[in-house]
Amino acid sequence: MLLACLALLLLTVPLSAADLRLGIIGTDTSHSVAFARVLNDPASPDHIAGARIVAAWKGGSPDIEQSSSRVDKYAAELKDKWGVQLVAEIKQLCPAVDGLLLESVDGRAHLPQFREAMACGKPMFIDKPLASTLSDAREIARLAREHNVPWFSSSSLRYSPIAAMRTPDMISAIVWAPGPFEPHHQLDLSWYGIHGVEMLYTLFGTGCAEVSRISSGDSDVITGRWKDGRLGTIHLQRPYGKYGAVVFDKNKGLNANPDFSFSYVPLVKEIVSFMQSKTPPVPNDETLEIFEFMDAAQRSLAQHAAFVKLDTP
């Protein structure tokens, strides 16, 4: 009874004139309800003002269990608890929203869904992974430029304690993160390993020249050599593990954070700011280099851990 009353109250909270209306594409990820909770519940201690989720298209991928088993459940929660209108087609979101969150958990679906959504001409956050292949990631970026659609993509781990560990005198770093695979994703690190890659790029920024990767059933070790000589290594654990990092500084020795938690709240704040300014907080070129890094890592694995240069345009 109390839950029903809360849902009714949320449905009747009017949008402020300053609130942006946001629409979700893909309700098969916990991010869809987590973001709605932060944006649509003014009583939450984590509430972020300035935007509301008002509409959603379910989507879903029948051949991925993590999608098919959750898409209807999360869609129902968005509708019944957070007052989100469900629509039958992506194009129906266009007149209802000021910005879009492409949340589908399946990276393979992002390019075809982006093709439909770009007709809205609205700024778009594309949740990780941007795509499931380097070629799809590049095509999304090309279409966005051609149709003047502002976009950015990011892991929430970019806004974890890793960000505070970056220093001007950093010479190398090791980060660790979970690294389970999903068999339908051709670029295997794009499914979950991308969190670790984003952590490394939060520290190093762009400029990686070549990548080496070795893999076992339980883990991956991926090392990138940046053009200025810095070395960054990612340890991925399967099926799941903790997040952490060690940064080696030329003057101060090492800075270690072996086990840190993270929240979606900082990422959602960046999303709202992006929807207002249309300026991506993570440069599009950096996101594309992340995919070049993962592509090089996969090619290195096929070449017995040889260093492989990034495929840059």
CATH superfamily caption of the largest domain = Dihydrodipicolinate Reductase, domain 2
Write the CATH fold name of the largest domain.
Dihydrodipicolinate Reductase, domain 2
The amount of beta strand, in percent, is: 15-25%
- Tally of strands: 13
What is the H/E string?
HEHEHHEEHEHEEHEEEEEHHE
> What's the alpha carbon Rg, rounded to whole Å?
20 Å
Q: What is the arithmetic mean of pLDDT?
A: 93
Query: Which class best fits the helix and strand makeup?
Result: alpha/beta
Question: How many domains?
Answer: 2
- What can be said about the biggest beta sheet? 7 strands, mixed
Uncertain segments: 1-13
What's the N-to-C terminus distance?
Answer: 58 Å
Highest CATH level, the class of the largest domain:
Alpha Beta
As laid out across the biggest beta sheet, the strand order is 12-11-7-10-9-8-13
Tally of individual helices: 9
Shape: globular
Which percent range fits the helix content? 25-40%
Second CATH tier, the architecture of the largest domain = 2-Layer Sandwich
